Amino acid sequence: MQAWRVHENGEPGEVMRLEETAAPTPGEGQVVLKVRAANINFPDALLCRGQYQVRPPLPFTPGVEICGETEDGRRVIANPALPYGGFAEYTVADAAAVLPAPDALDDAEAAALHIGYQTGWFGLHRRAALQPGETLLVHAAAGGVGSAAVQLGKAAGAKVIGVVGGPDKARVAEELGCDVVIDRRTDDLISVVKESTGGRGADVVYDPVGGDAYAKSTKCVAFEGRILVVGFASGAIPTPALNHALVKNYSVVGLHWGLYNTKDPEAVRRCHDTLTELAAKGAIKPLISERVALKDGAAAVQRVADGVTTGRVAIVPEGA
Q1: Tens digit of each residue's pLDDT (9 = 90 or more) over 193-217
Q2: What is the C-alpha to C-alpha distance for residues 141 and 162, in angstroms, rounded to an integer?
Q3: For the CA atoms of 6, 11, 13, 14, what is the dihedral angle to 10 degrees?
Q4: Which residues contact 48 (CB under 8 A, 6 or more apart)?
Q5: For residue 189, what are the contacts with CB-CB under 8 A and spacing of at least 6?
Q6: What pLDDT score was predicted for residue 234?
Q7: Which of the two ends of the chain, N or C, has the fewest CB atoms closer than 10 A to its terminal CB?
Q8: How far is Cα 175 from Cα 142, in angstroms, rounded to an integer?
Q9: Distance of CA 27 to CAs 39, 80, 92, Å?
Q10: 213: how many CB neighbours lie within 10 A of its CB?
């Protein structure tokens, strides 16, 4: 089979190699899946760089989220078991964690439903307790993680303010349903948030960016607001001033969704059922900006790493 493999750490476009290799052999409790579509996530770039919290042995295949097909023809979504990632024609996954692909979504959309939307659901509902009528501020609202949070926030009855970089991404955020769109390159984020909330500020901040995005969030978060720390796509990890959280009476809440797979897997399944229902109603639908062939995988991962894409980019192997 063909698979993208990383033999040394570095930028995805430089270290990913498309190779002919043997199909993976499943371990105990695992299943082989034919890859129908593989969604590209920012952690795939971190894996290539050797900067992710999980560091599979070299060489490995990136790709942490797929829509696949079982040997008996069922369409499923899964997180591949590294080092046999999803940027290949075949992969393996833990059988207990394989979930049915929603009928309402095509392969690329189904592949993109899992990590980003599960992260959004657990973050907004389990960790930040978002309530109908509250204001949700979403950083990187036109990206894969942010676009999921926008849709889930709207589905929960929140007013959503989306932060983006540039006019093209602003148009995407508007199409996603943001009530207010802030272009961080030209707009004063803090003043726009305060103005659009009558001076109150954002009740929940969804931050997959870190760095300056976090710093500005602390200046426009509401009384009893919650800043949800999801990731650090900017590359800068904030060092919160806890005295500021005390004085303004807001919470800084962390979310590592992967822990739920081991700590509370049943909650993950319940969440999937909820997401499937929302997809069937049309309340959520992953934004797929590109579908690329397997041979173009490395360049696509590099574009995601560089932050120049909107929504999700999916690799669709030939013949899938």
Answers
A1: 999 999 999 999 999 999 999 999 9
A2: 5
A3: -70
A4: 6, 9, 10, 11, 12, 15, 16, 62, 301, 305
A5: 163, 182, 216, 220
A6: 86
A7: N
A8: 10
A9: 24, 12, 8
A10: 22
